[in-house]
Specification:
Distance between the termini: 63 Å
Radius of gyration: 22 Å
Oligomer: single chain
Helix content: 25-40%
Strand order of the largest sheet: 8-7-6-9-12
Number of helices: 13
Order of helices and strands: HEEHEHHEEEEEHEEEHHEHEEEHHHEHEH
Structural class: alpha/beta
Length: 466
C-alpha cells in the first residue's frame, strides 16, 4: 500500500516536495476507512522532572502489508515530537511492533543515532530509550508552563546571537537607547574565546550607553537548560570532548562579568514568539525566524511558555525519500525544516531559478544577492520567494497538528523586504486552497523590529533583583 498526494500549490522550484500535512491527511483517511480494525496509539515523551507530552493517534491494522506504512507514519511523528517537545524516553502505547521498529531506528547505531545521542545524554543527561505498553497503560500528559518577559522597568541589555551576526540593545524604562548589529562567524570557530570575547564586547558596548545595568537577557540558537547550551549550532566548531567543560558554562561565566545582575538566556525561537506576543498583544502565537537556520518559539493561548524544545529546524516537513530530498548536513535526516525555511533554502533553490553565484559564496551573501534582485523586480527572485512561501504554507498546516496555532509572526533575514510579503501571500494561498479550516493570522513586523526585535525583547526577560 502506498500514499498518493496531489498538491494544489506545489513549490515552483521544487515540485518533488511531499508535504507532511498532505501525506498524513491521506494516511489518516486510510485509517478512518479501516473502521474498528484501526489500532489506537499513544506516543508519550518524558522529559526532565517527570513532565510528559502525549500525542494520541491511530494506525492501520497491524498486518504485514501495512507494517512499513505504519512505521513511516509513527516514526515521522515521533521525530517531530522529539524536536517540538523533547524527551529522553518515548513510550508507545498500543503497539509493541511499532515500539520495536522505533527502538531499532533510534538506537546508537540506527538511522536516528543523532537523535538518540542528542535527546539522551546531550540534552537530558539520560540514556535515550523507547518502551512499549498497552494503550490503556500509556502515561498521561503532564505539562508545565512559565511566564517570562514583558519586564520593561530599569536599565536592561538584550542580545540575540545568530550564525552570521550578533545583535545587542540597551533599553531604559522601555525605550531603546542603543541597538547594533555586528557581523561574526561563530559556526566553526575552534576556540570558545572567540564567542566569549564577541558576546562580552557587545554587552559592554551596550552597557556604555546606560547609567547602570539592572538585567541582561539573551536569545541564541540551540537548546538551553538553566542558561547552559546543550546543543547549539553556534558552537559546532568546538571539539565535542570540550563541549561540557567549555561551552556549557559560557553564559554562566559571562554573567560573572556583571555581578548581581539577573541574567537569562533562552532559545532564540522562544524570544521570537515573546516578541510577537508583546508587540501584537496576541497569544497562541508561533514565532518563526528564517535566518541562518529556522528558529521557532511558541506562546500558549494563556500567554505562557512551556519546557518544550520547539527546535523545528530538525523536525520533518517533507516526506519524500528520493535522491532529490535535501539531507540535513548536521542530523543526517531528510526533509527537516531548516532546509526549507531559512537561508539554506535560498541557497538550495536559487540556482534552479537561474541565479549563478560564484563558487564558495556564503549563504548570507547569496541571500543578499537574491534580495537585491528582488528590489530590482527580477522575476527570478520572486520565484524563489514564492517557493519558500509554498513551503511555509504546507509546513504551517503540519505544525497546526501539534500546536494550537492562532497567529504566526515571521522574522529573520529571509523575510526582509518585498520577498517577505511574497512568502506570506503564497503561504496564505496554500492555506486557503488546501486547509481552509485553519484560521491563522499572519504578521510581519517592520524592518527594524525584524532585525533587532529579538534583542530588545530579550532585555525584558529577567525580573529585577529584589
Amino acid at each position: 500500500m502506498s500514499i498518493n498526494v496531489t498538491m494544489k500549490l506545489a513549490p515552483e522550484l521544487d515540485p518533488g516536495f511531499l508535504p507532511a500535512a498532505l501525506w498524513n491527511r491521506e494516511y489518516r483517511k486510510l485509517v478512518a476507512a479501516a473502521g474498528d480494525r484501526a489500532v489506537r496509539l499513544a506516543v508519550c515523551l518524558e522529559r526532565a522532572n517527570g513532565t510528559v507530552s502525549r500525542f494520541d493517534t491511530a494506525i492501520l491494522p497491524e498486518e504485514e502489508s501495512n507494517d512499513a506504512l505504519n512505521l513511516r507514519y509513527v516514526e515521522r511523528i515521533v521525530k517531530f515530537l522529539l524536536w517540538a517537545r523533547g524527551g529522553w524516553k518515548v513510550t508507545i502505547g498500543g503497539s509493541a511492533k511499532i515500539a520495536a521498529g522505533l527502538a531499532r531506528l533510534y538506537s546508537a547505531d540506527g538511522e536516528r543515532a543523532f537523535d538518540h545521542k542528542v535527546m539522551g545524554r546531550t540534552i537530558y543527561d539520560r540514556d535515550f530509550t523507547v518502551e512499549s505498553c498497552a494503550y490503556d497503560a500509556a502515561p498521561a500528559g503532564k505539562e508545565i508552563s512559565v511566564k517570562l518577559g514583558g519586564h520593561f522597568d530599569g536599565c536592561r541589555i538584550g542580545f540575540d546571537l545568530g550564525g552570521s551576526d550578533r545583535k545587542c540593545a540597551a533599553v531604559k524604562d522601555g525605550e531603546t537607547v542603543h541597538s547594533e548589529e555586528v557581523v561574526w562567524d561563530p559556526y566553526f570557530q575552534k576556540d570558545i574565546n572567540y564567542h566569549r570575547a564577541g558576546i562580552i564586547d557587545s554587552l559592554k558596548r551596550a552597557a556604555a550607553k546606560l547609567p547602570r545595568i539592572d538585567a541582561i537577557g539573551g536569545s541564541a540558537a540551540g537548546v538551553y537548560v538553566d542558561n547552559q547550551p546543550r546543543i547549539a549550532s553556534l558552537f559546532r566548531g568546538i571539539p565535542e570532548a570540550e563541549f561540557a567543560t567549555r561551552v556549557r558554562p559560557i553564559f554562566l561565566e559571562i554573567a560573572k562579568e556583571f555581578p548581581g545582575v539577573p541574567f537569562i538566556v533562552l532559545n532564540d525561537g522562544e524570544v521570537t514568539a515573546l516578541a510577537g506576543a508583546v508587540s501584537l498583544g496576541e497569544n497562541g502565537l508561533l514565532g518563526l525566524a528564517m535566518g541562518t537556520s529556522e528558529a521557532v518559539g511558541y506562546v500558549r493561548p494563556d500567554g505562557s511558555l512551556t519546557d518544550h524544545l520547539n527546535e523545528l529546524a530538525f523536525a520533518p516537513v517533507d516526506y519524500r525519500t528520493g535522491a532529490d530530498a535535501p539531507r540535513d548536513e548536521w542530523s543526517g535526516d531528510l526533509g527537516v525544516g531548516a532546509s526549507y525555511l531559512s537561508q539554506q533554502a535560498v541557497g538550495r533553490i536559487a540556482g534552479k531559478a537561474g541565479f549563478d553565484f560564484p563558487a564558495g559564496t556564503p549563504l548570507p551573501e547569496q541571500l543578499k544577492l537574491v534580495q537585491k534582485a528582488m528590489a530590482e523586480h527580477d522575476p527570478r527572485a520572486a520565484t524563489v520567494y514564492r517557493t519558500i512561501g509554498s513551503y511555509l504554507g504546507y509546513a504551517l498546516a503540519h505544525y497546526a497538528d501539534f500546536y494550537e496555532l492562532k497567529h504566526l509572526l515571521l522574522l529573520g533575514r529571509v523575510s526582509s523586504g518585498e520577498g517577505g510579503s511574497i512568502i506570506l501571500d503564497t503561504a496564505r494561498e496554500v492555506l486557503k486552497q488546501e486547509f481552509p479550516e485553519l484560521a491563522i493570522g499572519f504578521h510581519i513586523p517592520d524592518e527594524q523590529f525584524k532585525r533587532h526585535g529579538q534583542a530588545v525583547i530579550a532585555a525584558t526577560l529577567p525580573e529585577l533583583a529584589k
